[in-house]
Specification:
single chain, 350 residues, alpha/beta, Udp-n-acetylmuramoylalanyl-d-glutamate--2,6- Diaminopimelate Ligase, Chain: A, domain 1, UDP N-Acetylglucosamine Acyltransferase, domain 1, twelve-stranded mixed beta sheet, ten-stranded parallel beta sheet
Length: 350
């Protein structure tokens, strides 16, 4: 079991110890589940009361909490620091397993140093596999595809021909990179397939969740840029470009040739039509439908998408619409009666 003194943990996350720096830490856990010897963290103030009853030996915090009986590690960003601590305790150093004799390897394949290729993986002709790459069972790497150093391909991933995967990329099970884009030419009532002869480029430090489809470009490239993280069950169509450090949450669908800027967040079930541009640092709320360009630094929600504050006001009104309808109908009836009375008064005046 891996252990560390609290001072070592603080040095790891560039924090300051308040309390006993010599405490031995044996693991990590949540505030309510933690046991003696473990370290926990407080990123949300609403859980601060739970620290009074926690069994943890130490906690990572953003500022000193008075009268706290356990030791603290004070850092600028507790959530990020805790992520580093979890990695310290739970991620073992990389150890190459070599290439299984049950792997199918094509001709002209270039293998880097210290790879781990598990049984029943298939590597196509002239593929290039970088150093310390891990490919789990059942995964397929197509002809002339490239996978960069330190990337991790989980079981049953399909990486089609000529796809380019960068360094330190993680792709989870069931995902298909480089499937054909949805392109057809309709002629005389029938749909003729348009060959999708482009590719997909996934840059460094991208993570792709399970059961994601990233379609190859019809011509050119579908691109996911450095540092972007994609959740499970996402559809990215042909010729889409996603900028750096984006967060694409589950069940998002992005139609063909749409461009998404850097540091943009698309929440769950957001749908984007094709051939639009979404700016940088944009946030789109869950279940929104985006049918037009979005400016950088905007926060949007709804179907059709609108400014998030306007959407909140709209949502506040919706439950009252039946009542408003009754009131409008009653007012219309009163107006009719008043108009009839006015007409009668005019007629008497004549």
């Amino acid at each position: 079991m891996k252990t560390a003194r609290l001072k070592e943990i603080a040095d790891l996350v560039q924090g300051k110890v308040v309390g006993n720096p010599a405490i031995e830490i044996t693991g990590v856990s949540g505030i309510r589940e933690a046991e003696s010897g473990q370290i926990t963290f407080l990123a949300n103030p609403r859980y601060q009361a739970d620290l009074e009853s926690t069994h943890a030996s130490a906690v990572v915090v953003a500022k000193i909490i008075g009268d706290l009986s356990i030791s603290m590690v004070v850092v600028e960003d507790p959530y990020y620091a805790f992520a580093q601590i979890v990695k310290y305790f739970h991620v073992p150093p990389y150890c190459s397993l070599g290439i299984s004799d049950r792997t199918v390897i094509g001709t002209g394949v270039e293998m880097g140093k210290d790879v781990s290729i598990h049984p029943l993986a298939v590597i196509g002709d002239r593929a290039r596999i970088g150093d310390r790459v891990t490919i789990y069972p059942g995964s397929y790497v197509g002809a002339e595809a490239e996978i960069g150093d330190d990337s991790l391909i989980y079981p049953n991933v399909t990486i089609r021909e000529r796809v380019q995967i960068g360094k330190r990329v993680i792709i989870h099970s069931g995902t298909v990179i480089g499937s054909d884009g949805f392109g057809f030419a309709s002629h005389q009532g029938r749909h003729e397939k348009i060959l999708q002869i482009g590719t997909v480029v996934i840059e460094d430090d991208v993570e792709v969740g399970s059961n994601v489809s990233v379609d190859r470009a019809s011509l050119g490239k579908t691109v996911i840029k450095r540092g972007t993280k994609i959740d499970n069950l996402v559809q990215i169509a042909h010729n889409v470009v996603i900028g750096e450090d984006c967060l694409i949450v589950a069940q998002v669908g992005i139609s063909g040739s749409t461009e998404v800027g850097h540091h943009t967040i698309l929440a769950g079930q957001v749908g984007l039509v094709g051939h639009i541009k979404v700016g940088d640092h944009v946030i789109v709320g869950a279940k929104s439908g985006v049918s037009n360009d979005l400016k950088s630094h905007s926060v949007m929600s709804g179907i059709p998408v609108m400014d998030h504050k306007t959407w909140l006001k709209t949502q506040a009104i919706l439950p009252h619409l039946p009542e408003f309808r009754k009131r409008v109908m009653a007012l219309e009836e009163k107006i009719k009666q008043l108009e009839a009375q006015l007409q009668q008064d005019k007629n008497r005046g004549k």
